[in-house]
Design brief:
This protein is mainly alpha-helical. It folds into 3 domains: 1-36; 37-141, Cytochrome Bc1 Complex, Chain D, domain 2 (Orthogonal Bundle); 153-285, Cytochrome Bc1 Complex, Chain D, domain 2 (Orthogonal Bundle). Helices cover 46% and strands 3% of the residues. The radius of gyration is 23 Å and the shape is globular. 27% of the residues are buried. Residues 151-164 have a biased composition (Polar residues). Keywords: Electron transport, Heme, Iron, Metal-binding, Transport. This is C-type cytochrome.
Length: 288
């Protein structure tokens, strides 16, 4: 190419790139109202954004991948935890995690009840924004450690202590896609709010919810306990009841319930089909 051809190529390429960029910008702005659910931005959501900024939450947390990456990503936190849990947590984080035991240093911000309600409304709106999969690997809200060790669950996995061969039968991969246990395991990890965000299948690893290791055995013992007031008569019925009516039995501990209401979302009974609930029951009942 001579100088004239090179100059023309550069000008044409720049013009095409500019047109494409402007077109994508216009199209993005066209989709923003739908992607962000802007019609759901209430006064409470606006006030909640102010609370988020006033308390400098972004200095530790991230939303949409933006923030300090010091504490968990909160983009989908209301789907992972639910309003009752978040309300109780923000009132007194020390009831859930503490620095000595869990290496968590979330301070008690002293928020007023209306501030808590508003910031949760803001985070709920954030969770429903179509972020098209970004960030691709959000920081999961996990934590907890194995009693008697200084290792978190993720560290134990890294060191090979949670390999497939050491998992109980119900937690091992199942190749048959029609197997209800395999389908239940997939639901456990993918249903929204995801079960795996709050429950560990490792013994003694309590996250936002209690460990589900030995679920079948523990369910049978709970039914026989005088503290149990539910309707289940078998371990399978108890597991099903725990999924569709989580407040029927409240697991001991201040971080799992408040005022007689479980922090576990009560929506699974209507959001999941009976077949899906059967699959979850089959998976959880496989942990003897």
């Amino acid at each position: 190419m001579n100088k004239r051809q090179t100059r023309m190529f550069a000008l044409v390429s720049t013009a095409i790139a500019t047109v494409v960029f402007l077109g994508m910008t216009v199209d993005s702005h066209r989709q923003f109202p739908t992607l962000t659910n802007s019609d759901q931005i209430t006064d409470s959501v606006v006030r909640g954004q102010d609370v988020w900024h006033n308390y400098n939450c972004i200095n530790c947390h991230t939303i949409f991948g933006e923030g300090a990456y010091y504490a968990p990503d909160l983009t989908k936190i209301t789907q992972q935890r639910g309003v009752p849990y978040l309300t109780a947590f923000l009132k007194d984080p020390s009831q859930f995690y503490n620095e000595e035991t869990h290496r968590r240093i979330m301070p008690n911000l002293g928020m007023a009840d209306d501030e808590i309600a508003d910031v949760i409304a803001f985070m709920d709106w954030v969770s429903k924004v179509d972020n098209q999969g970004w960030p691709p690997r959000p920081i999961l809200v996990a934590g907890g450690s194995i009693p008697g060790t200084d290792l978190s669950l993720s560290q134990q996995k890294t060191e090979g202590q949670a390999e497939t061969g050491s998992l109980p039968p119900g937690a091992r991969p199942v190749s048959d896609d029609n197997n209800p246990i395999a389908l239940g395991e997939a639901l456990f990890k993918s249903v929204v709010p995801t079960c795996a965000a709050c429950h560990s299948m490792a013994a003694g690893v309590n996250l936002a919810g209690p460990s589900l290791a030995g679920m079948a055995t523990n369910a049978a013992k709970t039914i026989e306990s005088p503290d149990y007031k539910g309707k289940a008569t078998t371990a399978e019925e108890f597991i099903r009841e725990s999924i569709v009516e989580p407040s029927a039995y409240l697991h001991p501990g201040p971080m799992y319930s408040a005022s007689g209401t479980s922090f576990m979302p009560p929506s699974y009974g209507k959001d999941l089909s009976p077949e899906q609930i059967d699959q979850l029951v089959a998976y959880l009942h496989s942990f003897k």
